[in-house]
């Protein structure tokens, strides 16, 4: 049990058993007959929070449903009946109460209903996956503090059946309940056999005095151009005693000024009386803040957070209850943009161009954790994304998810539990009136709003995915989630309501009041805005098509998807050897190729890298014939990088002129799927991750693949002056046939600037395959603002010449510095292509003049300054370990050219050379960059961070297209 102030979290020590195998009642289990310790009993260690299926997998009662075809070996609830997945969960906890103390037993999420037994007393919990249950068990707690708890969990009422051919949401029966809808299967996931039955979210015991604090609401308002702010706070208070409580209610707001050093911004105390056995809503006097630190989305500024603490003291008792929450001062607005027809978002008055992704949930078996959430959301921030859409067929995401989004600056679009496929569309037409119990849906929705509304990252509520909720639900949500006038969009030339007078009606009196409610994901500024299926497409595209006028004609696309093949190690780790067979390439009469995957790939929803019906040639075969799984997956990574970089660059190329935002379907998979992902379920990134990371830089230099104009996208609020662009083309012989520098440029904020046409393809005798390196740098301090590397072929060509290029061996020097804090490794790498390029004549590269051999080009990531001192020490090292702790690895090579598509991986050294298929990787690893290329003489710093289990020695390995493969560099 994890114990906090006044709260005990029950997250370990649980047992579980199938209800039909337990001979005792709940009363008996929690009095005279608790589960026996015998290994022959039906009881097993349980996953709580988690699901029945997660518990069965943990105990190896059923095989891992995410491996190969093993999901087919698990009986589906449609065939077994609901009783098969009706389970008892049992635990004990210790809790002593003193005079006038009260105890609540809290369930933050149960799917779908439950019978709770505590010390022989029964409490029936109502239905609904997305509602909290807080039970006053003061009179049930044992005086000696030792308590027995048993919970009988029932599956959803309408688990449905799975049609032979699968389908979007199975037979749609699951939509009759208020629960997750993906569990009957979709075109990206197989069915979840227990339909997520279980105690799937936090269970806790909380102790308070006679008065309890319930669901405070925090809202900020600004005036004087965001230089001054008010904090409005309303909370509900419940007096559970039989006498009037004379209370002292205080609110404290602190901010962190340095590591672990906090400054108290406000401390206010109010006195009030609360009648016996009653509830009241209390609103604090407004707190004034001068020059508050603002919360900004990723790429726009800092994510400043204040800690708000509310404490209530009762006369004659002392501190009765407390509540705390991190809060960000920020204002989110949105409206339908006249120029594009898309919904345009503003944060703190600044327009924000949305680049993000669709999200289902971390894990299909609801094995959710703070640690996993932190990795997930940091990955999104690392890709330079600024929004996540929580899709309506998944979860109302958990507070821990939102805490990470608050910290990393990711805006969240949160949908309620409606999808077009399950709730009104499809053939035959699915549930035309949504869930059976509309009151239950609304109760869950309102409770979800109260749970999540204080998070600054939460940007908007949406009724459903590709569908509007039933009329009565939709009308109720519109009313409940109406926006306070201060947060409504107004004309640019007029001031917002309340701009000059902060004493307007308190927005914290609203259920939310600060965020817009949109009735569906295809309405009101998304897709065509009318609810038609105008999102997508969801398959491979010709990269240049993303830049064309006719590609997508609406202002904001909430879903556009593509491929997502992971690396070969993931295939071997998640599938048996018969699944290591690559697709059959079937050439059609029109010359296009159709991919035919093996049955296991098909089961895992593989999406091909060709689309004959849309005249998209197989993008993997552009690189030549494929030999085996490793070759296929490596070439897939090349395509992943190009595909997703082009997608985002195509959208940002039309920022504000045609588009206001795009959300990619989807960023990750909650199981071992083979489509639409930037990192796999094991948390290894695909190359598409780094294509997105490059394209979504706040300031980015790019090549328009349709016009071949070099463009700079500035999504920030700052004008950039005295910047320059360096353009260099490199051929497969290691020479530089095209070079130009464009200096004295100024880049306006929130603008796309076409700079110059890249004319190399129109030059005399251009090479059929070549590399292009673009660098945008600040001339005053030599800082690299953006670096972008392309591999390109002439129109109508392919990349087949890259196949013999693999035979070249390019020399590299890799210098590393390691620091270890506990179980966390932080590694700084400096990778240099040491091949000697051609002579050059006084070229200006990275802000330095060179007049002899090809210069050493030291590239830094966006916003990073040269680590000059460290680099000088690097250059003194030749091999082995230097005096100042730097390790140097020399990768032998004898050729000159671009070191192409380099990438690192981290492994458990003790497992290296083990049996085929065993996964030796240490995951996750956070890389500052990966899948990168270096021209002759160029250097790049790379940072790695990862955790290792006790006793494990990590090994960092370098892979590359044309360097010695699998080199251990650390």
Automatic annotation (TrEMBL):
Q: Where is the Glycoside hydrolase family 2 immunoglobulin-like beta-sandwich domain?
A: 212-330
Which segments constitute the Exo-beta-D-glucosaminidase Ig-fold domain?
Answer: 899-962
- Keywords for the protein's UniProt record, in alphabetical order: Glycosidase, Hydrolase
Task: Tell me the domain of life.
Answer: Eukaryota
State the Gene Ontology BP annotations.
Answer: carbohydrate metabolic process
Q: Which InterPro entries match?
A: Beta-gal/glucu_dom_sf (IPR036156), Beta-mannosidase-like_N2 (IPR054593), EBDG/EBM (IPR043534), Galactose-bd-like_sf (IPR008979), GH (IPR017853), Glyco_hydro_2_AS (IPR023232), Glyco_hydro_2_cat (IPR006103), Ig-like_fold (IPR013783)
What's this protein's name? Beta-mannosidase
Q: In what residue span(s) does the Beta-mannosidase-like galactose-binding domain sit?
A: 43-200
GO MF, any single term: hydrolase activity, hydrolyzing O-glycosyl compounds
**Which species is listed as the source?**
Crotalaria pallida
The cross-references to Pfam families, in alphabetical order and at most eight, read:
Glyco_hydro_2, Glyco_hydro_2_C, Glyco_hydro_2_N2, Ig_GlcNase
Q: Which family does it belong to?
A: Belongs to the glycosyl hydrolase 2 family.
Give the Glycoside hydrolase family 2 catalytic domain ranges.
Answer: 344-474
